[in-house]
Structure formats: C-alpha cells, structure tokens
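Researcher: Please translate sequence to structure tokens.
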Amino acid sequence: MTFIRFILSILVVVSSVAVAQARTVYVDDQLYLPVRSGPGTQYRIIENALPSGTPLEVLDTANENFTKVRTPKGSEGWVSKQYLSDTPIARDLLERATRQLEAARSELNETKEQLSTVTAERNELRDSETSLSSRSQELQQELRRVKEVSADALNIQRRNRELLEENQKLRNDLEVLTAENERLEASKESDFMLLGAALVLGGVLLALIIPMLKPTRKTDNWA
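Model: Translation complete:
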C-alpha cells in the first residue's frame, strides 16, 4: 500500500512538473529577486537581482513556497512563489501597450501616406482620363474629316471616271465624224472627177458636132 502511494505521489509530481514546463511566470514588483540552488532561503544564491518583469520558465511547482525556474541566462534555481505572477507586471503591460500604440501610430502614418499616394494616383488617372477623353474627341473629329475627304475623293474619282467616259465617247464621235468627212471628201473628189470627165467628154462631143453644124459652102460652078 505504501509503495502504491509512493508511485501515485511520483505520478502527481511528474504531472505537475509537466504542466509547469508549459507555463511562463514573471517576476512581480520585487526589485531584487534572488535565485537559489534549493527551495529555501538557507540555500546559496546562484543568480541575484532579477529585475521585475523578467520572464521565467517554470520547471517544478511541487514545493509549497518555492518554484523551480530557468532564467533567461539559462540558470536553473528556486525562487519564492510570492514574488511570481502569471501575467506581466503593470510596467511591462504599459510598455507593451506603448509599443503597440507606437506601432499603431506608425501603421496609421503609413496608411495615411498610402492614402495620399493613392489619392495622387487617382488624381493623375483622372487627369489622364480627361486628357484621353479630349484626345478621343479630337480623333473622332479627325476621323470625320478623313471620312469627308474620302467621300470627296470618291466623288472626284467618280466624276473623273464620268469625264473619261464622256471624253472617250467624244473621241468615238470624232472618229465617226472624221471617217464621214473623209468619205464625203472622197465622194466629192469622185464627183469632181466625174464632172471633169463629163466636161471633157462634152467638149469633145461639141468639137465633133459643131463642125458638122456649120453650112457647107457651095462650089462656084460659074467660075
């Protein structure tokens, strides 16, 4: 029975040590907390003057008045439980709150700078949008002018084509008139030649007929 009780005590101690190892305690508002080699004031001091707020790793809480801890320097020893706290002291909390406040202020300033940058970029984009809108209107007007010029060019091209067709038609008419004139000239020359031939023939006939029409002189038989 005594052996079983001893085993249970060991299990309780081991479990309490295991739970203690997961904890972190802080030195309370005691300016000079000594770390001793054993759980009592009769043991020698192995590390002195732990400042308040020092975090200590809990190693053993089996003793009623002392807790075994590990200091930030790596020393392992015992300190009085009455000077330990599960939460940081008010000064550390204030310092932490101050650091958080400074971080929040710094973040706020960065946010303000980012907001200022975004606002400037937005204004630049707005100016760019206005400039692009004006440029778009100019391009639309230029496009309308190009379309008008293109329409005029098409009209001019169509008019040129019509004039070329009219010119070709006039050329054809001129060629027809020229051919007709040449035919008339040839016909006129032929008529002149026929008329000349007729006149010559008439002259010949007259030359033959006229002598025949003259009275014949009678021979003077009385001579």
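Researcher: Any highlights?
Model: Strands lie at 24-27, 33-36, 45-50, 55-60, 66-70, 76-80, 84-85.
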